[in-house]
Specification:
By secondary structure, the chain is α/β, with parallel strands linked by helices. It has nine helices and 14 strands. It comes from Paenibacillus wynnii.
Length: about 325
């Protein structure tokens, strides 16, 4: 049975979804949606499909089985809920929503729908992430002691002025935490387990007067298993550096640098995971695993199996972001 797909939102991330769909057998991208008719028209030409400007036109179409949400954060909840209520499967880009109450409504809609809700945290599919998780689950390096995650990226004024929803609490839901570095926070909580408390701080270092949200943040995460994680993120750097991760175990340390994973043990460093090969669409620091996650989602849909990175799982990173904001005494909307 062929599955029909639609993409809502024709911005920077949508081509990765379109490319992944085109690479799968038994799946056809049938329509792209954007309120900007010119964007929708251009995307439709590039993808070889039809286009509409109102996503609600998808709701009654029996030829649309899966809807991809590549829209601004504050639009995820309404669109996902309506699509789920119509029995569509929904795969949404991160974050699941711009605030926790909206995310909870999405989860409730999925529970009452014949469709599934999936959340795009593609870095869980990266080879280093998989190898780290295997080491954690097998215990081959002993107990995990502590972790750190560092993200130093660059966003200039034009990034925000060209997309007016960015840089605002009510539409983006925050700044560097909820947009750029939520992937790294998701990995830290996925590796570490249940969090007991968070202490964090946010500032606007380079974009003060341009955005109302943070461009820099740091936090200490305390886990129930006594693991501790340190986290630092900024959009105030002048280049987009690869994400750095370090996990210290009883019997060695795993270090991720430039998409490679190394084991440092007894004074010797060994390569555990090679960088990915081939050309990835989009920006290199996004990671290369969008296609793997999207393919996995479709396989679960086709086999009528529950997708593991569902709404409940996708909310965990948003909860962590919310906790850091709360710890920082930031003025929030609905968080």
């Amino acid at each position: 049975m062929e599955l029909g797909a639609a993409i809502i939102g024709c911005g920077a991330i949508s081509p990765l979804h379109a490319k992944a769909i085109s690479a799968m057998k038994g799946v056809q991208l049938r329509v792209v949606v954007d309120v900007d008719a010119a964007k929708a028209e251009q995307a439709a030409r590039e993808c070889g499909c039809s286009r509409v400007v109102d996503y609600r036109e998808l709701l009654d179409r029996p030829d649309i089985d899966v809807v991809h949400l590549c829209t601004p954060h504050h639009l995820h909840a309404e669109m996902a809920i309506e699509c789920l209520n119509a029995g569509k499967h929904v795969l949404t880009e991160k974050p699941i929503a711009s605030d926790l109450p909206s995310a909870k409504r999405m989860v409730e809609a999925a529970e009452n729908s014949t469709g599934q809700l999936g959340v795009v945290f593609q870095n869980r599919y990266n080879e280093p992430s998989i190898r780290i998780k295997e080491a954690l689950d097998s215990g081959e390096l002993g107990q995990l002691i502590c972790m750190k995650g560092i993200v130093t990226w660059h966003r200039d004024e034009s990034y925000y002025t060209n997309s007016t929803w960015r840089g605002r609490w009510d539409t983006e839901g925050g700044g560097v935490l909820i947009n750029q570095t939520i992937h790294t926070l998701d990995l830290l909580q996925w590796f570490g387990g249940e969090i007991s408390s968070v202490k964090g701080s946010i500032t606007t270092d380079a974009l003060n007067g341009i955005i109302e949200v943070e461009d820099t943040a740091h936090a200490t995460l305390f886990f129930k298993n006594n693991v501790r994680a340190l986290f630092y993120a900024t959009n105030a750097y002048l280049v987009n550096s690869p994400v750095e991760l370090e996990l210290v175990f009883e019997q060695g340390t795993l270090i991720q640098r430039r998409d490679c994973l190394y084991l440092y043990k007894k004074g010797k460093e060994t390569l555990w995971s090679h960088p990915p090969t081939g050309n990835a669409l989009g920006k290199s620091y996004w990671g290369v695993s969008h296609s793997l996650l999207i393919k996995d989602f479709y396989e679960h849909v086709r086999d009528k199996r529950d997708f593991w990175l569902n709404g409940t799982e996708g909310m965990k990173a948003l909860q962590l972001v919310s906790d850091i904001y709360t710890s920082s005494s930031a003025r929030l909307t609905n968080l």
